What does this fold into?
Amino acid sequence: MLREESPSSGFRTTPLGWRLAKDRLARLGVGLGGLGVILAIVLIFVYLLSVVLPLFQPARMAPLSSYALPAGEVGSVLGLALEEQLEIGLRYRGDGTVAFFRPADGSVIGVEQVVPMGMDVSAFAAGEPGSGIAAFGLADGRAVVFQVVFETRYPDGKRVITPRLEYPLGAAPVVVDPAGRPLRRLAVQGDEESTTVAGVVDDALVVGRFVLEESFLGEEPSVEAYHGNFPLQGRAVDHLLLDKEQRWLYAADGTGRLLVLELDEEAQVGLHEERTLLSDGATLTALGFLAGDISLLAGDSRGRIHQWFPVRDAQNRTRLTRVRTFALDGGRNRGAESDPVRLLVPEYHRRGFIAAGEGGRAVLFYATSQRTLASAQVGEHTLVQAALAPRANALLALDAGGRLHFWEIENEHPEISWSALWGKVWYESYLGPDYVWQSTSASNDFEPKFSLMPLTFGTLKAAFYAMLFAIPLGIMGAIYTAYFMAPRMRALVKPGIEIMEALPTVILGFLAGLWLAPLLEANLAGIFALLLLLPPGVLVFAWLWQRLPAHLRQRLPEGWDAALLVPVVLAVGALAWSGGPWLERLFFGGDLPGWLSHELGIDFDQRNALVVGIAMGFAVIPTIFSLAEDAIFSVPRHLRNGSLALGATQWQTLVRVVLLTASPGIFAAVMIGLGRAVGETMIVLMATGNTPVMDFSIFQGMRTLSANIAVEMPESEVGSTHYRILFLAALVLFLFTFLLNTLGEMVRQRLRRRYSNL
It folds into this structure.
């Protein structure tokens, strides 16, 4: 009965009823707490997933408008361009004019005459897309160089964009070929200091470099002209490219034979190398740069696009190397003939590009991740001119039928693919494929490198060395403290070790980075001497102790043996530390880090895995020690007494009874310590060089997932690829620790069931 009647109140609650009610409340509270923890974990997972999922959304191309060119312009458009806000488009026309128009409907805003009337335009070239520079080549060996500038104003709070043309070398044509021969092909690049124009004439390449000379008297800057040429000796040139650094000139014929020419400051031309871009009988139909002008894209008659960029060989000389190949048909018609590549249009800043074949079909690719992102039928006829917007969010294309097509592009995160995140990628100018994390740079043409492998490797490496240091000390210390140590000594040691867990990890990281790392570097020989001398020193002392008369050994109370080891450890440590410099001078020329580097080829970083292992090991030891010690100490005493009563020794009882019974708790301690090591941030942030390298050497640093998030999250743009990949790193860390803890709990439960009957 939970109640019984009372004359005064009608009933009263018994003590048993209160206990049952409190038990129900406790069960309810524990259950709600557990559900709350599960809900919090699920919500964290859902939030991380919601930020990461946009990385894997496919690209999309959609039409916005399509309209016909004015009848007089059909066949005369030499190039197209788009303004960043998509409000103004440009058409470079064969009569030497530039037409500004609205991309949405084709309405003309204005036309500016660039080439003086009466002069014949023989060639056209546009420079690096972001510079806005372009040039018309003339039939008399001269060229007009101009630059498109968009001025943005906000009168009355409304944006107004006004286009205009500037002439960095003056409005008058400049001489490219002093002999006055017609320029058949043209390439142009320029910056604030100089402009270079290269052209193809009868049987030679001609180069004009025009350097702006500033006047100290406030006068207009003068132009210093340099001219050079390179005889073609019968070679045909159907494609001509000049990089934005105005150093490398690429000239190729229809068979894919490429001349790589190097220009000096005075426009003198030298042959660097000669390559064949194609094989198996294909012909070269398109040639262009990727953003940054490092990689070449070569489109052929079989619908393939080959990416080439310079790679240093064994003689430290750069050689163009084919890195990857794309197919207009996505590789579906492998071995069959495909439409030839007619057009290559690169993005302004990323390594993406659009390739067009016959029939008006355009395909969007991304080079670094080697992905075919999207394709669309842009027009009914073959595309002859096209331009991407500066933000790569729109395409303006002209087909052979004289129609302009304006398309929207959604392609926020093309850099991401499974191979780019977890596989080796061959980045521009690297010697070969590699795992690289380098998310930012000072250059707008930087190729982001988002491999998570170095960060995951660094996380596991830091955890491995920390656990290598912490597990033996933590578990062995727990065994001795719980099983052999006297109760009074245990009451001093256990709280002392557990209070170490209260130390802020930022303090440990600060000490490790600024004090421990230089100390270890200066006394590396002493550290190794300590590791070699300490175990035999303890064993020798134990052997000597056992040789003492029994009446002397019995004066030490049982369980206080560890106190005798304190001076022994200190003495061995002092001996190793003081003898380290002598050993270093005797065997390693006084410089052990230098000896490791020069003799063994092992690089030594001051902030390395050894420092991290010691510092993070001290942070993890209290967790492992406390949980393992509790598990061992909680083994029922009757099990130990029964084993000893049956004739087992202390060590036999420990190994065959106590440790087996406590194994679930010991295993849980190790797994919790491992989870702590994997997720540690401040120690690895401050005690390593934060270099994302994949080197398991104990003398090299690393960068972990958690430290990388802490370092780079403040500088990442919200919603950018970099921002979302940092959340992906957090999701990887979350899933790793979750799976690790789940696996650990499964093993712990299995051990618990197996040894619960002891």
The chain has 15 helices and 33 strands. Residues 391 and 616 are 45 Å apart (CA to CA). Residues 1-11 have pLDDT under 50 and may be disordered.
